[in-house]
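## retry 2 of 3
previous attempt timed out at serialization; input unchanged, resubmitting
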Amino acid sequence: MLERMKIFSGNANLGLAEKICDKVGVSLGQANVTTFSDGETRVEIDENVRGMDVFIIQSTCSPVNVTLMELLIMIDAMKRASAGRITAVVPYYGYARQDRKVAPRAPISAKLVADLITAAGAQRLLSMDLHAGQIQGFFNIPVDNLFATPVLIEYVKKNYQENTVIVSPDTGGVERARAFAKRMGASLAIIDKRREGPNEAQVMNIIGNVVDKSAIILDDMIDTAGTVVQAALALKEAGAADVSVCCTHPVLSGPALDRLEASDISEIIVTDTIPLTQRAAKCARIKVLSVSGLLSEAVRRIYYNDSVHSLFI
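## retry succeeded, writing output
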């Protein structure tokens, strides 16, 4: 029944691609994604894709520009090889934070990336926890934005059962945190912060009761970890008994690991949308949950033209 499906992957997250293939029940497609000596991306598709339903799995994570070009060139190669339908599976969508003009003469890079993916030949996008929901509107092709909540909440329910408060690290994440808290049956708190500059955050005050509670900071990503570390410090000072962090995308760039290891955060719960570095993988505080089950089910339903609605609930 899956004879018309082909799943390929760039070099960004081969481990996740292999897990998805195992769950779907197909083998990973043969593709050689390398570089020329001057750094240009070189792609060779080593099997027939004519008329096939092709899925290309590639998170546009670090090195972002390299992984993005791999994705675009693979899509173009599939289009020119007469693939029947091309779906870009981008668990982590890079440039998503640049989704609006925040200063004069600033770009909207998230829209530019959407245009590039579409122009390359993708006919559908499957992503997870987009930084801003309006990015779906940047595309003129169908977009399925899945949420890692079912995976995260299953773990949290098993390990954090009593006296828990879900914390949004900023006002932009309140909707996400409220929905998570409702499903947990937990209370909600919000951290009011003022950002002084790029990748810098200053916690101002906490809205809600966190005294003697197990606080779980919920965010879509951890980049330099400045926000969550300062949030954890503010929660501790406000009387929280314990502080953990829960996020979908472990970007963990720059001083992130140093900050997390020096903090009072007891556990950092992340998913495998982005592969961890060797150092991060050895960090005892980091717990990695796999979203391969969600993504594989979405891939299967897209292939059979079934509804993916239930995956959003």
